[in-house]
Amino acid sequence: MNMIVNGREVTLPENVVTVRDLLDHFQLNKELAIVELNQSILDKATRDNKKLTNGDRVEIVQFVGGG
Amino acid sequence: MLKIGPYSFNSRLLLGTGKFPDFDTQKAAVEASQTEILTFAVRRMNIFEPNQPNFLEKIDVKKYTLLPNTAGAKTAEEAVRIAKLAKASGLCDMIKVEVIGCDKTLLPDPIETLKASEMLLEEGFIVLPYTSDDVLLAKRLEDLGCHAIMPGASPIGTGLGIVNPLNIHYIIEQSNVPVIVDAGIGVPSDAAKAMELGADGVLLNTAVSGANDPVKMAEAMKYAVLAGHGGFEAGRIPKKLHANASSPLEGMSLL
């Protein structure tokens, strides 16, 4: 499956099906990650099993130091 | 007590979390400041460098109220998007509206700041706009329903202190919501001055994170805010052009 994650085109293995799989694939901290799928922000409590499809645009953001 | 929307705080010092030399120093500085409100920015995770350490993992998040900013936004729409992402963290519903209109001065765009604040209030956020020291704009932001007004002392990161104390005074005088002087603080006396003018709080970052000893500066800022606020509450003496002896004039015949 191909999609754009944080502005970069990535090819994902077949076992990446859901948002949780995607976060695991990139070894991202799931507590900190905030996920937007096709410009729609996903609810943290229910996003894990959200299915991904070819061509999706995903933004994964977090809090960082700032003033 | 500093009251912002539904929240109350004992500390009137709000601390930014950017540009500290390392997490241990930052954690010690946060503790030394005794702040209860920490600001953050929202940025993309680096998907190709997993498990990068994050300051949020180093602190007990429950002990602090997080105040994410919309830094990076140049339009109201971008600010709203960042604010919604921040809220989706499930960690906070306060937002520092920061819409920069000029890369050189980092001064906020007043029109976009006003628009973003209005949109975010409609979305139910607790809205704290970072604004210039424009008195009428501060009034317009309050009239919209903003929960606090955060005028800059001077441009972000300059450490120039309060360049227009008269405007800050006017803003404080007219406001019925908390006024938090944000940006441009360089030294503890700047923070104390803001509080002496009657500000309800001070938000600073670089003054602490960029100091030679950030932990010591954080503690100094804590005392400065306390001292300035105490001075404001106590009520200063009027300024006079001529001396007025503080020792009694009676009983001087011994000379």
Short account of what is shown:
The complex is a heterodimer of chains A (67) and B (255). Chain A has 67 residues and is mainly beta.
Features:
heterodimer; A: 67 residues; mainly beta; five-stranded mixed sheet; 1 helix; B: 255 residues; alpha/beta; TIM Barrel; five-stranded parallel sheet; three-stranded parallel sheet; 8 helices; 35% helix; globular
Decide which structural class fits the backbone of chain B: alpha/beta
H/E element order of chain A? EEHEEE
Total tally of structural domains of chain B: 1
Tell how many strands the DSSP assignment of chain A holds. 5
Major sheet details of chain B: 5 strands, parallel
Order of SSEs of chain B, N→C?
Answer: EEEHEEHEHEHEHEHEHH
Cα end-to-end separation of chain B? 52 Å
User: Any idea what the CATH superfamily of chain B is called?
Assistant: Aldolase class I
Give the fraction of residues assigned to helices of chain A: 10-25%
CATH architecture of chain B: Alpha-Beta Barrel
Radius of gyration of chain B: 20 Å
- What is the arithmetic mean of pLDDT of chain B? 95
Going across the biggest sheet of chain B, name each strand in turn. Answer: 5-4-3-10-9
Subunit structure (chain B): Homotetramer. Forms heterodimers with either ThiH or ThiS.
Pathway (chain B): Cofactor biosynthesis; thiamine diphosphate biosynthesis
GO molecular function (chain B): thiazole synthase activity
Active site (chain B): 96 (schiff-base intermediate with dxp)
Question: Can you put this structure into words, describing what you see?
Answer:
The complex is a heterodimer of chains A (67) and B (255). Chain A has 67 residues and is mostly beta strands. Chain A has a domain at 1-39. Chain A has one helix spanning 19-25, and strands at 2-5, 8-11, 34-37, 40-41, 57-65. Chain A has a five-stranded mixed beta sheet, with no helix packed on it. The longest helix of chain A has 7 residues, at 19-25. In chain A, 28% of the residues are buried. Chain B is of the alpha/beta class and 255 residues long. Chain B has a single domain (2-234), classed as Aldolase class I (TIM Barrel, Alpha-Beta Barrel). In chain B, 35% of the residues lie in helices and 16% in strands. Chain B contains eight helices and ten strands. In chain B, the strands form three sheets. In chain B, strands 5-4-3-10-9 form a five-stranded parallel beta sheet. Chain B has a three-stranded parallel beta sheet with strand order 6-7-8. Chain B is globular. The interface between A and B is medium-sized, with 27 and 39 residues. Strand 5 of chain A pairs antiparallel with strand 4 of chain B, so a sheet runs across the interface.
